[in-house]
Amino acid sequence: MATILAVDDSASMRQMVSFTLKGAGYTVVEAVDGVDALNKAQTQSFDCVVTDVNMPNKDGITLIADLRKLPKYKFTPMLMLTTESGMDKKQAGKAAGATGWIVKPFNPDQLLKTIKKVLG
Amino acid sequence: MSIDMAQFHQVFFEESFEGLEAMESGLLNLDMGDVDDEEINTIFRAAHSIKGGSGTFGFTAVSDFTHVMETLLDEMRDGRRQITQPAVDVLLGSVDCLKEMLTAIQDEQDIDEGQVSEYQKALETELNGGEQSSVAEQPVAEVVADETVTALDVGAGWKISFSPHAHMLKTGNDPVRMFRELSELGELKSTIDFQGVPDFYDLDPENCHLSWSLELLGEVNEDEINEIFDWVEDECDLAIQSLSRSDESSEQVQTEPEEATDKSDTVAQPKEESSPANTEKTADKVEKQATAKAKKDTKPAAKGSSSIRVDTGKIDILINMVGELVITQSMLSLVGENFELNNLDQLKNGLSQLERHTRELQESVMNIRMLPISFVFSRFPRLVHDLSTKLDKKIELVMVGENTEVDKTVVELLSDPLVHLVRNSLDHGIEMPADRVAAGKPEMGTITLEAYHRGGQIVIEVKDDGKGLNKDVLRQKAIEKGLIDEDTVLTDKQTYELIFMAGFSTAAELSDISGRGVGMDVVRRNIQSLGGNIEIISELGKGSTIAIHLPLTLAILDGQSIAVGDERFIIPLGSIVESINIKKEMINRVAGKGETFRLRDEYLPIVRMHEIFDVKTAKATKLTDGLVVVVDGQGMRCGLFIDDLLGQQQVVIKSLEANYRKVEGVSGATILGDGSVALILDIPGLVRLSNQ
Amino acid sequence: MAEQVENNETEQYDEQKKLENQVQFLSFTLGDEEYGVDILSVQEIRSWEPVSRIPNVPSYEKGVVNLRGAIVPIVDLRERFGLGHLAYSPLTVVVVLQIESQEGQNRTMGVVVDSVSDVIDVEKKTIQSAPNFGTKVSTEFINGLASVNERMVMLLDVEKLLKLDGLDDENES
């Protein structure tokens, strides 16, 4: 089953995402911010990345841009978790290489559906 | 699949409260003249997180409320809005309101709707009334160029032409995904178009050169199709045509997504109340909050006591040590299995290794329980800010040594006494600005909270540059209350310490600020029960300093074991200055002070252990026959007259009071290697005892 | 068959009724008098071991011992009740009592007695209230009197017993 990197500085969100995805059989690795995520991405391999945008140390969009520079993540699906008001964030995210987004607040089912969409 | 979100609630509450703390201290630290970008970003992120989490977990009221705060903060961090003190004050009040909302939800109580809507109004007023251009009150509705679509356009199906741009794959978007989704909506037929594929040698495998003509048959809503291509709007050319109307020119070509950047100017209608009245009301509210908060202050502390955050580095160290311990244990096991006298050295080695590892392990574990005292100090900026505003005094809070680490239990028990002391300084210590100026002092009073380690103890000082204590007034008051006699002689220090006597403060004086029923006597007793002490230094007109001394850890002590007759005592190693054999010439009897001995240039009192502790089996009764250990207890020195010095060891402090009682001069007990109980001496207490 | 079953049931019923109406006490002697403490408050019974003295406490508080890592005070009940001290020997018994204080914490204390007798069952309704005369022991510690096999056993209030002078006072001057 696929391995997913879940990035969010909010522990409760991280746990919820992690729990939801694990429940569906995915392997999940958590990261607390962009720096943590980048480190983990370099030493491990992920089939998909789900990241919050607003985080300290390195935000989600910068993270996605950095990940795209790594050969192994050129084509990996990367999803941003963003609030509806962040229209400009979506554009910036896409420009950085994000595959798509999931709008917050979301419920676990929406998350699973979207992940299934990109991972097949 | 339905997941029970409730399991994440507790974590959400915890991190939200933390976020609110961060917001509060961030807001308090904001310097209007020179805004720290990182600071305002942190505050924004905290609000954003709470909004996101509360929305996800279904706490709509919180989410809606926080949204307004977030909008305000977003503008501030973007530079679109100037940061003003009134705005910060409203935000501070909103933080309090949020705290209450979350607490209510967590306790399954009702939210104070009235308060919430009041604060919400205040926030909205700030949003609208501030120096600002058009502000979008509501979240910007996602405007997709859908307006031209008639949603009822469901015919036999659709014709879709899909040409990804070359780089579409590089965002991780795979056409296969879209086709899969389309085929879930209806019957999909696709025709691939190779025209865009360049010559082999110009081919870049990472680019997408293909395009497709698709036919989707079925009763499908155009919206659904658009949704599938939502993410790649900018990265492809998409044309959707209804099959039933293929002859009409109702093509909806989506090349540029119409991002309607004109935010809907649906600014919430300015409230009827005029601005001044509103701000007055909120200022009032802020005040009420301060006192309400005062009452609720004990709650957060209580919640924190059941768990502890530990740096994972500390845990790693612990794991390593346990590993080493296991190795040493196996080694000793081996030696013990077929023990011969030849192996004695090995055994000794093993045992000394064991001792070392155990000690290291112990230190590491104790270290885990250590928290920086900033945990206690963190509530004070707000406290000082609110109370100084309420009292119309100008007071600055300086905190030093916040990183000083202290045992977790000490942190928990220190909080309330410190609050009481700081309030005292605020209320009775620092003078009104006018009075200060008249006395030639700066208008702004300063309260300093300082923490540092010294001599195996942690010292926390509350200093103010206020009016100081008036010895005569104190003395007079004590006489009036019958606490001392008219002719009692007291040193300055003892006079100041009259404050600690029960019954010193009357109900009339215990103002709302300093709190009812929490007298200085209770504060001192609390501190003493922790094995610590509290003292006051003051100078009339200049200010006062209250120093709290506490043992660094409540559980382990480096001790010097001593013998008095058959009995064993432990002196905290940190209190020992030196030990000497007394010669007759050094002894001096001072009238009214008992025995003293001369040490370099001072005369120190002698405390005869065998007398104080009534040890009948004492070997030495003549001072020249035994040993004198010079000890220091919070600045007071004396010589303990004992029989012998035994070994030094680390002892585990056991409470005497748990099952028994507090004994003056004794801070606890420990169990020695032979199973017997030795009393641990409380040096300051001993000195006090001997003075009686 | 049916009758037997019925009998068993009534027996069980009776047993249960008995339990509800009874209290169990550990009885011990001090001098020529017999006392009892609720068996539920008895943690263990030990023989006398040397204690570590605590200075400046009443003489009936003998000191403290290490009881599996906890510091437990030992009180001589004879001296506490003014019955005079009896020399300790290996036969001297210490009854370790434990109660839960108001704050929910457990307090443990050992009391030195002459000897332990046995565990007695007493029916609650046969317990008489302590008469206000002539007993050597201050009646403040006595919950009631029980009569067992023609002996009079004075039932002690363990909570009061464990409360040492000046311990729970808030205002120590």
User: How do the SSEs of chain C run, as a string of H and E?
Assistant: HEEEEEHEEEEEH
Rg calc of chain B = 37 Å
Report helical residue fraction of chain C.
10-25%
How many individual helices of chain B?
A: 20
Could you explain how this protein is built, in words?
The complex is a heterotrimer of chains A (120), B (692) and C (173). With 120 residues, chain A is of the alpha/beta class. Chain A has 5 helices and 5 strands. Chain A has one domain (3-106): Rossmann fold (3-Layer(aba) Sandwich), CATH 3.40.50.2300. In chain A, strand 4, helix 4 and strand 5 form a beta-alpha-beta unit. The longest helix of chain A is centred in the N-terminal third of the chain and has 13 residues, at 11-23. Chain A is globular and about 30 Å long. The mean pLDDT of chain A is 90. Chain B has 5 domains: 6-144, HPT domain (Four Helix Bundle (Hemerythrin (Met), subunit A)), CATH 1.20.120.160; 155-274, Alpha-Beta Plaits (2-Layer Sandwich), CATH 3.30.70; 312-368; 390-551, Heat Shock Protein 90 (2-Layer Sandwich), CATH 3.30.565; 556-691, SH3 Domains (SH3 type barrels, Roll). In chain B, 41% of the residues lie in helices and 22% in strands. Chain B has a 6-stranded mixed sheet with strand order 15-19-20-18-17-16. In chain B, strands 2-3-1-4-5 form a 5-stranded antiparallel sheet, with helices on one face. In chain B, strands 7-9-10-12-11 form a 5-stranded mixed sheet, covered by helices on one side. Chain B is flat, with a radius of gyration of 37 Å. Chain B starts with 5 loop residues before the first helix and ends with a helix. The radius of gyration of chain C is 19 Å and the shape is globular. Chain C has 3 helices and 10 strands. By secondary structure, chain C is an alpha+beta fold. The longest helix of chain C is centred in the N-terminal third of the chain and has 20 residues, at 2-21. Chains in contact: A-B, B-C. The A-B interface holds A 9-13, 15-16, 19-20, 23-24, 52, 54-56, 68, 74-78, 81, 83-85, 87, 91, 94, 97-101, 104-109, 112, 117-118, 120 and B 1-3, 5, 7-9, 11-12, 14-15, 42, 44-45, 48-49, 51-53, 55-57, 63, 139-140, 142, 169-174, 176-177, 180-181, 206, 230-231, 234-235, 259.
